[in-house]
Every structure is written in structure tokens, then in C-alpha cells.
Design brief:
Two copies of one chain form a homodimer. Chain A is an alpha/beta fold. Helix content of chain A is 46%, strand content 11%. In chain A, strands 2-3-1-4-5 form a five-stranded parallel β-sheet, with helices on both faces. At the A-B interface, helix 3, strand 2, helix 8, helix 9 and helix 12 of A face helix 3, strand 2, helix 8, helix 9 and helix 12 of B.
Chain lengths: 284, 284
Amino acid sequence: MGRESFWTTDPDEHLRVGKGFVLADQPTDAVYGFDGGKRQGAKALAEGAGLVAELQEQLFAAGSVGDRRRVLLVLQAMDTAGKGGIVSHVVGAMNPGGVHYAGFKKPTEVELKHDFLWRVERETPMAGQVGVFDRSHYEDVLIGRVRNLAPADEIERRYDAINDFEKALAGDGTTIVKVMLHLSADEQKERLADRLDRPDKHWKYNPADVDERLLWDDYQAAYQVMIERTSTEYAPWHVVPADRKWYARLAVQHLLIDALERLDLDWPRATYDVEKEKKRLAAS
Amino acid sequence: MGRESFWTTDPDEHLRVGKGFVLADQPTDAVYGFDGGKRQGAKALAEGAGLVAELQEQLFAAGSVGDRRRVLLVLQAMDTAGKGGIVSHVVGAMNPGGVHYAGFKKPTEVELKHDFLWRVERETPMAGQVGVFDRSHYEDVLIGRVRNLAPADEIERRYDAINDFEKALAGDGTTIVKVMLHLSADEQKERLADRLDRPDKHWKYNPADVDERLLWDDYQAAYQVMIERTSTEYAPWHVVPADRKWYARLAVQHLLIDALERLDLDWPRATYDVEKEKKRLAAS
């Protein structure tokens, strides 16, 4: 468990996918490890923000003196599940100078002429950075599978290709934190209705959102296969209950803090002679 | 003046470079337009953060429905002037999903084999984004000039090339906000000394910082020429007093808010039939 003081029990064991995982059995409204409601959740998030910012700065500092390690947060979810809020409220607590954000939309014509991982590889974080994938290569086995955007054998090939890709990233020092925000169909309906009710949210709604919603069960099945096939020791999946936005944010913040803490970071030692530099500076 | 309520007078006229500008005459410790100290400044910054975040989201929303406009914040300064703090505290208030941050360090060998603007063009913001250049193409007429990294006629050529480049960006819908953080040599000395005194800041210090410091006057002269040659109607320079970090942050936040407000943004209207979509959603 991380240094945050507000967890009553470590939520990790509930969030991290284990053997025999069945997505359909997972609650979407649980608040594992947290004893409190929305207001306490928001307060806890603000408390954790300082810690995540400090840890990220230490990672950045380490990167500046040759440490090759970095962290990659991968966010996948059904529409309205709260990816945007997590980027804003959790990722947003870190210094933008050390964060590499990449949002993956419908691939362009050029991207489609390359292997599906081509556009993704180019956005992987550098040493010292926290990378954030807002959607990712997993779209290629989610919408790709549900909408038959590639032949079945190509979809099959991708699971192994993803594992090899992530194994290579991990082998070169990337801690991969994969998160699926797990939303109920009812909650999605309410959130889409809210977007339609509020003129300031109309731009967030797209008629295609309902088209996708009609394929809810197919998507859940595709997520199940994805999790089974790509939850590995070096890049496990976490399934975060997302019906309560405040909890999902807190849980993802925790996963990020936990990943950063496991790097056992500290401020790097000077790579120069401090006393000599003090004299040079004084004389300048 | 922007919608922020805490300015006593509009700081713009003091910050924006006018005809006959002389950098050496500009104070580094002024707090133009703000009646208060550090504590009030921090409070004001937090108040402005909500506004800048909302405006940025409206820009992003506009970009999502075809508006080509974007904003580019260019930050230039001597070491320790506070660029990092501005990225963290001012830029950090916006949603990372709508911000494109680019830090420019010493050019790589490949970058040097291209025109100096090559690596910069690739990092310009897309429609709907706020771009942030942490250092920029101006390094090529600052350290480039002071250290003779290119022949004199090439340095000369660059001022016009920069103006043409920025004119094209502005012509395609980019509001360019150029900021020089103006620090005193004494304040820099204190800040470098602080980095040497604190083990948690040792990584931020580089012996080359003192080498550059010894060329202080040459850099000030290069900034003067840069401002004279590249402060244009479509991309004017702002010189922000930076001896007080809290004020520099507040002033840059204001310049950003002001640029966004001049776009006269609002939430985009729905591009679909709202009532029809409500029915489709209800039936789903």
C-alpha cells in the first residue's frame, strides 16, 4: 500500500486481475478499501495529488541523471466511463513537463497502412517520463474485434503481439499500469442523457456513442478476452469500478502512486563537486 | 483585461513590448497591476486556475467541431527564472488532454542537419490545443548568437525566418503568446545558491549554468536584439518581471486567459438532432 493515509485496506488485491477473472462478476459501484463518500473522496484525492506530483518529479530527476525508468498508464473504457476526468484530475496533478500524454482516436489512413502498433510505439514515454495512453493499442482488439475491422486471424495475432510489445517496454525499464474503467450500462445511459440535457456538454456527445452502446454485450465480451489474453506478470490489468467517478479517480491515483513508489525513488546525488561549484558561483 | 477580479489595473500595457523598448530599463521585481503580496498572489493564482481551465476546455470543444484555432505559449528565460514553475502551476491547471507541451533542449545531431525551425514546426499545437514551448526556436538566436553556434549571417537570417514562421502560424489560426521571464543577475545567484544548498535540488543544478551566467551581459544584449527584431503585431513579446515567482506565474496566467478570452469562445452547438438522440438513447 502506498504512503497515502486514507485507505482503510489496500485496494490492490481487488483491482488487480487474477486467475479465473470474470468481468461480468465484477461490481461497477464498489469502493474497495475506502471508508467514505464523495466528499471524503475528493479530499483524499487532493491529499494524494501532492504525493503523486512529488514522486513524478523524482522520476523526472532520476531520468535527468541517466536512470532509464519510466511509467506508462494505459486507460481503456467504454464511453463516458471517466477517462477524461482521470486525465484532468489525476494526471493533471503532475508537472506537464514530465508527462507524455497521447490520445488515440480513429486511426488515420497512413496509420492504417502500418502495423497497428506503429503509431503506439512512437508515443511511448522516455526515461523519466510518466506516459499516459488515453485509449491505446487495445482499441485494435476491442472495436477492432467487435466491428470486424480486421480479419479474425489478425485480431488473434494481436494479443501475442501486444504481449511481446509490452514485454519489451517492461524489459527496458517501463512500469506499465493498465486500467480498465468498469462502468454499468445503466450508469452510461444516465451520463449520456446528461450530455444531451446540458448545452455545455452537447459537444461531448456523438450519435455514434449510442451505436456503440447497442453493442454493449459484445464489447464486454471483447474486454473479457482482452484481459484474459493480455494480463501478464509484467503488465497486469486492473479493473476499476467506475460508476462513482470520485472512486475511480482515487483508485487510479493510487495505482500510479503505487507504481512510482515501487521504483524506490529518491533525489539523485550531485554529479559534480558541490563545494567547488559554490565557490565558482560566489565568484560569478 | 480578463475576467479575473484580482487585478487593480490591467497589467498588459506594462508587459507587452512597445516601440523603443529597452530591456535594461525594465524592472525585474515589479508587480504591475496587482495590489498584494505573495500570499494574495497564490490565492489569486488558484482563483484564475479555474477560469483558465474552463477557457481551455472551450477551445478544445471548439476544435472538436472544426474550429481551427489554437494558442501557443512560448517561454524564454535565463536559467532559474521560473519556466518550470510556470509550466507546473499555470499550464498544469489545464487538462493535459488538450495541452501540447514541448521542451526544447540542446539539438540532436539529426536536428542540426535540418533547418533550425524543423524540430519546432513538428511540435506546433493542433486545432483546439494549447501548445507550450519550454524554450523554443529563440534559443537559436540567443545561445546561438552568444556562443557563435552559427555564422553571423545565418543568425541574421533567422530573425526574418522566425517572423515568417510565426506569421504563417498566426495566419492559420494560432494565437501566439511570447513571454520572456525577466530576472535579475542577483536573484539568479540566490536561486543557483539555493540549488547547491539543498540536496533535493542538486539535480537541477548544472555546472554549465555558471558558464552561461558569466555571459550574462551578452545574453541580455541578445534578448534585446531578439525582442526588437521579432516583436510583431501578430506575435508580440511580453517581458514579465520574474524576481518574484508568484507574480510571474500570475502574469503569465493572465496573458493566457487574455489570449483565450479574445477568441470569444463558447460551448459549441450540437451538430446533431438533440431530441432525436434522446429518443434513441432512451430506447437503447
